[in-house]
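ok trying this again, last paste got cut off
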Amino acid sequence: MQVSRPGALAECRGDIWLLLATYLNLRLGVLHPEEGEEPVDHASSFSKDQALLVLSWVESGRKFRDVLASPLQPSALLRAGAAIHTYCQDPSGRTAGAVGVALWTKFFVSGFQAASALAREWMDACTGSTEAGLQQLGVVHMSFVRVCTYQDQQSRTQRAALSGALSKALRDAPNVASFLWQWISLATGSLGALHVRRCLRELVKKECSPLAWLVALCFELCRAQALTNYRTPDASFTLPNFRNHVRHILEQAVESVAHRRCPLLWRLYIELEVPALHCSQREPLP
């Protein structure tokens, strides 16, 4: 069965670990978890046994399609697990693909708690504030969030684990768009919206991040759309009030973010104000 997504394979650039991790992420429906979309091949049709078959291909010396068409060999899975463990022993070997394969192997062989412990161990090892350390920390967070997302899809009782993983990822890597998008997608109801607003406000104050402001704006637009679709005729929320709310957020954004860092914020503010300016200056026809 062919499974594809535009641009997914091109990003692998001959990295066999990344190619294998990307294949698993595609089949499990978590390549881009922040989008919240079903994969081409539904995740429910790709079982744990099939995932183990994919992982057992490592160091097998066999063709990939032959491994998938044959029964699972425990010895091959043990050999594959030992190979990826050895490869990741050296911190320099913990690339995006290798970390992804290693965490999936630990998850499917030993369970979620074992994968969580391994991810925490590697996160703790990313000490210091060097660019390489921060990049590797982001790699571990991304792979672990995918594992948590898959676990959440299979059992909603693990929603706390996914929320916790995203919160920690945002503390360590606050400017990663996918973490922000997926984190706000978990918010439900008025209390969830208040929590998101509070956290985003703290984030923009701490980081002065244009990305956080843009996510905050998109979150408010999505909330407004939901309220517009479901509000009753006598609801106190109105679109003019929402326009003022968005204007207030944009004013805060353009005051705190340098224009050279995010001209898009200024453009959004201008496009919001120009129609209102034309309406206020429009004179009635004689």
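PB: full thing came through this time. Residues 38-43, 282-286 have pLDDT under 50 and may be disordered.
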